[in-house]
Design brief:
heterodimer; A: 8 helices; B: alpha/beta; 10 helices; 12 strands; about 30% helix
């Protein structure tokens, strides 16, 4: 099974032998892939079905609610704490970001960029909340309650004394284009950040 | 009326008694010169003896975990919901061993057994055994069965504590451990409930300081009260409310002190049923084994350090409405395992049945249990 492209990018950022925590790990595909590279870790997942998928995949998985933070984990106990495509569904993203920085030596955060021109256009001209390939739900049934833009996220990192070690801002096919390179907040649909507390 | 044995049952089973002539020294400092362990097995042991699973029982459990002793039996073994062909602990793949613990009253040496040194029954003089003692005696049974390493050791409640103790004490001898609805030690409230149960038994005039057998009587009243109390702690308020509510037995209140509500009738029935099948001295002993369980005590109360030697992969399961050993107590175990860097998964099952949920065929619980055990089976290779 080939890995989703954003997960492949995350995997490329993680060196062999690292200890990782994958928040909202879904069916455990990233951890399964990392395990094959000798990278050990745990997934956190709240969804019953996905939890069982992780058990089936032989991935260590802890059923937990990310809105409660990460109280079961000691300070700086992981090399990487990963939060992929989940930040926008968290009650207090700022709190979880602090928890990630507490538990992990580095954080890897991926989210859909709400600053993409299509989102802006739908709101500005259509006067309606944007619906797109990366954000397919309507405003009333979306789990994505805290959408942000690339600029918003970088400002939050800055406020929390976190520096960006690397970032990958790509289109919905996870490719970078001239647009995503020049004006990432306007042309990027998916943003991936590697961050670290100062 | 004879039961029709279901196809997913292990069917008719019979226990075996192992007599052990090597003395066992117990944590309390005393030793037993010889002892019996009664056990049942389900499924076939494979050629390389890699598919053996040990079941550890809880307070009032015994070796009869699955199947029927007799076609006339009304009920199967206590964990029949989880053990059998195609069930979570699939006897098509696993060789399942279930024993009655030392100090029990269902065939293994306990307070009701004859003391070979005096020729009389032990009664209250039977030494108190601990969870560690059980693990040691269970390892003697494993040696006898030539099982050097269990594919998994599994238990719920007090059984989960034994499973945890196995992983801590004999790390080389198990590949997986399933700790269900357990706790790393009892809380003051847990001990308090046990003490009320013991007081109920000991204050029964028929108890005779535990020598009731010599007086040819039984502390039925006290043991019944202890069981009633225990039963309340095994169920949740919601489960009790759903099952009985405020339903009246005769449809009207009687302005008296006899049974008005169905729940009262149920508790009386449960307790009177129990006292015919369980020994009061064993009940006292089991509650003490629970109270004393505290594996971290030997590690300066550091539960993470306690877990350091564990080699088994761990699955910890809790149930939302369990207030005897709540999810928080399971999470203490999980946190310690995580901080010790051990392989662990943890599921919190939405269930309204309270502590007893671990014995019930709750769909999501069984799904996770079964999925996990399928991974364990896949590792055993040479399956029958």
């Amino acid at each position: 099974m080939s890995l989703r492209i954003d997960l492949q990018i995350i995997s490329d950022w993680i060196p062999n032998g690292a200890r990782v925590l994958d928040l909202g790990c879904g069916n455990g595909s990233l951890l399964t892939h990392l395990q094959q590279r000798g990278i050990s870790g745990y997934g956190l997942e709240i969804d019953n079905g996905k939890f069982a998928d992780c058990i089936k995949a032989g991935v260590n998985v802890i059923q937990a609610d990310l809105d409660q933070g990460l109280p079961q984990f000691a300070d700086q106990s992981f090399d990487f704490v990963i939060l992929s495509q989940t930040l926008q569904a968290i009650n207090r993203p700022d709190f979880l970001l602090q928890e990630i920085a507490r538990v992990g030596k580095q954080g890897i955060i991926g989210f859909p960029n709400f600053g993409h021109w299509q989102c802006r256009l739908q709101l500005t001209l259509g006067g309606k909340m944007p619906v797109s390939r990366t954000l397919p739900n309507s405003w009333f049934n979306t789990p994505n309650i805290h959408l942000c833009t690339v600029n918003d996220f970088e400002a939050l990192c800055d406020n929390n004394k976190m520096s960006v070690l690397s970032r990958s801002i790509v289109n919905h096919e996870h490719k970078d284009t001239l647009g995503t390179r020049l004006l990432p907040n306007l042309f990027g649909q998916i943003a991936l950040y590697q961050i670290k507390q100062h | 009326m004879p039961v029709i044995i279901p196809v997913d049952s292990v069917g008719l089973v019979s226990p075996t008694t192992l007599h052990i002539d090597n003395p066992i020294t117990l944590d309390c400092g005393r030793s037993l010169p010889s002892y019996d362990l009664v056990y049942e097995t389900y499924g076939e042991l494979n050629a390389d003896k890699s598919n053996a699973v040990l079941i550890c029982h809880a307070l009032s459990g015994d070796h009869h975990a699955a199947g029927y002793h007799d076609a006339e039996d009304k009920k199967p073994g206590w964990w029949d919901s989880a053990i059998g062909p195609g069930k979570a602990i699939d006897t098509n793949h696993f060789f399942v061993v279930s024993l009655n613990n030392l100090g029990g009253c269902k065939g293994s040496t306990g307070p009701n057994s004859f003391n070979p040194e005096t020729g009389k029954i032990y009664g209250p003089d039977f030494p108190i055994v601990t969870v560690s003692d059980w693990v040691r005696s269970q390892s003697v049974l494993a040696d006898h069965l030539e099982i050097t390493q269990w594919a998994a050791v599994i238990g719920g409640s007090l059984g989960g504590m034994q499973a945890l103790q196995w992983a801590i004490s004999l790390p080389e001898r198990l590949r997986h451990v399933l700790i269900i609805a357990a706790a790393p030690k009892l809380s003051a409230q847990n001990i308090a409930f046990n003490e009320v149960a013991r007081t109920a038994i000991k204050s029964d005039p028929d108890f005779h300081d535990g020598h009731y057998a010599a007086h040819d009587t039984l502390p039925r009243h006290g043991l019944g009260l202890a069981r009633m109390l225990g039963h309340i702690t095994y169920l949740s308020d919601e489960a009790m409310g759903e099952k009985f509510g405020r339903e009246l037995r005769t449809g009207t209140i009687n302005y008296g002190y006899d049974v008005d509500f169905q729940i009262e009738s149920y508790l009386r029935y449960q307790s009177s049923n129990f006292v015919d099948h369980f020994d009061a001295n064993t009940y006292l002993l089991m509650t003490k084994a629970l109270d004393y369980f505290d594996p971290a005590k030997a590690f300066d109360d550091d539960l993470t350090a306690t877990m350091a030697n564990i080699k088994a992969k761990c699955l910890v399961v809790s149930f939302t409405s369990d207030w005897r050993f709540s999810p928080d107590r399971s999470q203490e175990i999980v946190t310690a395992l995580l901080n010790a860097g051990k392989q662990v998964s943890y599921a919190e099952i939405d269930a309204h049945q309270g502590h007893d949920a671990f014995l019930m065929p709750i769909a999501r619980y069984i799904e996770i249990f079964q999925t996990y055990m399928q991974q364990v089976a896949a590792e055993c290779g040479d399956n029958t």
